[in-house]
Design goal:
Blueprint lengths: L2 H12 L14 H9 L14 H6 L1 H11 L27
Length: 96
């Protein structure tokens, strides 16, 4: 496990009531690739009906799209671009 996630896990064990926000920046391509190596590939297909074998064919591209889709970046720096929940456009009327 990566060092930052180990610290988060330790804190969660010490204080179960603790709430964490903005953890998506920890989900880097490297982290997900490491996780992929430990994945049970005998499980059921995902919600997109893709099997582990199908996903592995283009693993690098799939991980890159996954990280960008959850609001992270391929370098691990936090960003708002590509957020899973983009902000709604709001009309504001300013009164002078």
């Amino acid at each position: 496990m990566h060092e930052a996630l180990e610290r988060i896990a330790h804190r969660a064990k010490l204080d179960p009531a603790c709430r964490f926000g903005a953890l998506a920046h920890h989900l880097t391509e490297d982290f997900l690739r490491d996780t992929w190596q430990r994945l049970n590939r005998k499980g059921a297909p995902g919600v997109d009906h893709a099997t582990a074998e199908e996903y592995a064919v283009n693993l690098d591209d799939n991980l890159k799209r996954l990280v960008e889709g959850i609001g992270g970046t391929t370098t691990g720096h936090r960003t708002c671009a590509g957020s899973l929940y983009p902000r709604r456009a709001i009309r504001r009327n300013l009164v002078h």
